[in-house]
Amino acid sequence: MAEPARRNLLMIAPAMPDVAGNGLAMRIGHQIEALSENWNVHLVVFASAGVRSRGLPDGMAPFVTRWFELPYRDLVDPQFRAIEVASSGGDHLAAVRRFGRPNAAHWDPARIADAVFAVFADVPFDAVFVMRSYLAELARRYFSLPQRPLIVLDADDDDVAAHERFARLRQQVGDPYGAALDRVESRHYAAWEADWLPRFDTVFAASPVDAARLAGRVPAARLAVLPNVVRTPPDVPSGPAVRDIPLLMVGNFGYLPNAEAAVFLCREVLPRLQDNDVAARIALVGSSPLPAVTALARLPDVELIVGPPDIADFYRRATIAVAPIHAGGGTRIKLLEAFAFGVPVVATTLAAEGLAVTHARELFLADDASSFATACATLLEQPSLRRLIALQARQLHAARYSMAALRATLAPLADAAARR
Asked: pTM for the whole thing?
């Protein structure tokens, strides 16, 4: 008996998918890989950050039928250029307010939807999958088709809450102007979501917490949870290993919440460990460090590693992975990576928000410097407890945050499209 014909799905994404590295690129890549089991995936990329990619990574090629990257500069809204040229201060803030949309939604609304539709105008799509709420308008032409496809949105983070948190963090670090910008962004996202989210057949969020907040603000939206996942490493040590990095933090240190977390870890947590005679060193492994993070490398017992080609070796060498995050949104892929590599984790409550974890079972939770240092010391000094926490975290990863779990979550989309 012949196999049923595969259906066509259009993925509209704000970044080129990848198998590693940037969290957004990884989320897109994991979804495309999972969807490709049931669909011919066609990809349109509009790099909303304005950074043109270097093409589809080799690791994604088996999962993408066709792809195209829209020319960013050709499609920017002329009104957004007023924000780009306005000087920092009142004029810039006023320009942001007048724009009225999230800054990431800065394309020309008169042209962007037609540009997306024209890319694969020859393909009859059974489903359209839009990544991130600020790209919602890019699917506008598909909503009005006589044979309307299934149209879903992956909001991923709760952008309203994330920008509210960014505003509080900027205020705390002495940046009231940046805080004002984030408060405006939060209001713009709230209005944008109220307009666009109810139009989609399903709206995914990365965690139950994010989904609940979105549902509270936009009751007409049809919410579901699509967790972040990470692949299971092929060579996780099953027994004792050489662990010469006591505390490991991995992240993009050009991202303010990560930079603030690194400063907190090195300047507030590490001294408390050392005052209690706990032998501890910190490895900060990641990219694009802000000056405040670069300065940390001058501290004793702090090493900064920028742009390593592979972070797997650092997880294999780590005794504990830490995530002392105090702002931001979504779920932290870096926590899931540590779970998958069998590295016990100490994290703030916010860093673990939305994950199905319990304190002292899959990880240790601590929010202030004193309790964070105590949690790190406890795990550093108790190998058997480390092994137990790591085992339970790996079991949770396999059950809830693996590629197999993602495939199971996305598989019903094919049936939903067939019923239309």
From this structure: 0.91
